[in-house]
Amino acid sequence: MNSIRIKFVIVLALMVSTMALTQTSTPAAPVRDHNTPDLPSPLCDSLQPPAGSHLILRAYAIGAQLYRWNGTSWSFVEPVATLYNDAAYQEKIGTHYLGPTWENNNGSKVVATKLVGCTPDATAIPWLLLQKVTNDGPSPFGNVTHIQRVNTKGGIAPTAPGSSIGVVAEVPYTAEYYFYRAN
After folding, report:
1. Minimal CB count within 10 Å: which of 1, 47, 100, 167?
2. Please, are residues 144 and 108 in contact by the beta-carbon 8 Å criterion?
3. Where residue 183 falls among pLDDT bands split at 50, 70, 90?
4. Are 82 and 63 in contact (CB under 8 A)?
């Protein structure tokens, strides 16, 4: 388990270093009107939120996707990530965990379920459109209806078998989350 954690820390440090260099040396990817993500078409056209939805928050996540070895394959357990208001990961605004749940620093929460997904990068977890199951608290998450997970890096299940049944792998990932409310 310690070797997995050490690998996680090394990979996470490399991802943050690479992202920091990318952020300072190249301009950000263009986004469409209203700051919504630029989706690869036609592959990810289904990730559009319903007509009339309004973007209320864009968050940058860095963390891990956790997988447990069951003896024959890796089973997804949960995401564990910190949400930031900026691509440089300076201003923490919340957390992302089992549910899947997103929780803002002010205590507002949204739990969602996957509607559709697409995989523009086979080396990363899929991009998703999720729909709210429950909300709690004030804005921003208290009135979220849909969430997009896009621009993912990493996070896919390990390809090598686990060392023993029950071992957990923490696979580093980053993503951008776009939170929408209904009109």
Report:
1. 1
2. no
3. confident
4. yes
Angle made by CA atoms 4, 8, 12, in degrees to the nearest 5: 175
CA dihedral 86, 87, 93, 95 (to 10 degrees): 170
Q: Which amino acid is at 1?
A: M
Q: What is the pLDDT of residues 3-38, one digit of tens each?
A: 444 444 444 444 444 444 333 332 223 333 457 899
Q: Within 13 Å of residue 33, how many CA atoms lie on the same side as its CB?
A: 1
**Alpha helix segments (H runs only) across the chain:** 2-25
Residues 171 and 156: beta-carbon distance below 8 Å: yes
Whether 33 maps to a domain, the answer reads no
At position 121, the amino acid (one-letter code) is D
Q: Which amino acid is at 101?
A: T
Counting the structural domains of the chain, the total is 1
Asked if residue 66 is part of any domain, the answer here is: yes
Domain span including residue 174: 2-28+38-181
Give CA–CA dist 46/26, Å, rounded.
Answer: 29
Strand partners, 154: 173
**113 assigned to some structural domain:** yes
Residue 36: its pLDDT value, please?
85
145: in domain: yes
Residue 21 CB neighbours (<10 A): 10
**Buried (b) or exposed (e) across 148-173, using 16+ Cβ within 10 A?**
bbbbbbbbbeeeeebeeeebbbbbbb
To which residue do tokens 């940058």 refer? 60
